[in-house]
Amino acid sequence: MIRINLLPHRAEKRKLRKQRFYGFSVAMVVIGALIGFIVHSVYSGYIERQEARNAFLKAEIAKLDQEIAEIRRLQEQIDSLLARKQVIESLQGTRSEAVHIFNELARGMPEGVYLKSVKQAGARVTLVGYAQSNARVSHLMRNLEESPFLERPTLVEVKASTVEGRRVSEFTLGINIERPKTEEPVQQKPAPAAKGKGARK
């Protein structure tokens, strides 16, 4: 009977299997590393693009903040100019009030009455003066009430006083300046007086 020694052949197969296993393992490691590199590159690209977008958005936001700050500054300047314009218009509208006040006082001042002081605070005028009698003060109030520029005369105080040895009535009188918003109310104001005169007839 012939005997064949198969040990070398089996050793060769075992060695070949080991080589194939090592080769397959190395190939898997290389393929895994390659896949990892590709995935890392892809995600790195995504991250770089997103960072670029974020940087662009930050730059645009900074520009918008500057524009908003400029708009606010311009709005403040506009508000300041409007406030100045309103002050100027108010001054222009009221600069002739003193002239009107003195004209109306001169027209409505009866004999035996003279003023010691005239003070204005806004639309309110305070008159302090002397009259020969209380009737003269009443006459003054009626004259001022008929003025188209002055309204609602109010007697604040009247008291007896002595001026240069003569007894007189010292009075304090308040009156408002009529500031019509439109010309229509001023033109219509004399109408009630005309109707009243007609009723008396």
Automatic annotation (TrEMBL):
UniProt cross-references to InterPro entries, sorted A to Z: Extracell_DNA_Util/SecSys_Comp (IPR052534), PilN (IPR007813)
Annotated keywords: Coiled coil, Membrane, Transmembrane, Transmembrane helix
Renumbered residue ranges of the record's region Disordered: 177-201
Stretches of the chain forming a coiled coil according to its record: 47-91
Biased composition range(s): Low complexity: 189-201
TM spans (from-to): 21-43
UniProt signal peptide: none
GO biological process terms on file: type IV pilus assembly; type IV pilus-dependent motility
One Pfam family named in its UniProt record: PilN
Official protein name in the record: Fimbrial protein
Source organism (scientific name): Thauera humireducens
Origin organism lineage: Bacteria, Pseudomonadati, Pseudomonadota, Betaproteobacteria, Rhodocyclales
